[in-house]
Amino acid sequence: MTTTPTTPQDAAREKLAKGMTGLLADTYTLYNSTQVCHWNVEGSNFKELHDLFEEQYTGLAEAVDTIAERIRAMNFYTPGTLADIARQTRVEQPESFRDTAAMLRHLIEAHRVAAHRIRATLELAEHQPDEATADVLVERLRSHEKTTWMLESHLDDGSRRLTRLQPEREAVGATS
Ligand SMILES: [Fe+2]
User: Per-residue pLDDT for 175 more than 60?
Assistant: First the structure.
């Protein structure tokens, strides 16, 4: 049975569910892109990247299921056909996946797009508040940030700028 929101609370909850369906589409697209990279990667790092991409798309497939089932637990139907995914995803796919560096850059950007959507949706979940949905989102955000780091570490172009922490100065004692 479908219903239309009648109160501001209902409308806010529907907006949160739409954020989740958007994230479902982003995650599904990213899962597909990562699997295509797994199939087509070539070169001296073949084995390492072929295995890394498999580990990543397996995790993304699990995430798709978690997000979809969370939408059902929120009492909304989960859109999930390929047409639904194509309509709602913000993750762009290239015409073809070429060299390794292009694959890595594409995936890094796709993880950033998903993370961006998560941060916006997390605000809605915290505002509800809907702790269970927020928990799913925080877990997904942590995973995207970790994967971004791993992918960037295979790119030797200095695109990731790291800060080396300086040790805190010892407080000067009053007796010196
Ligand atoms: Fe495989």
Answer: no
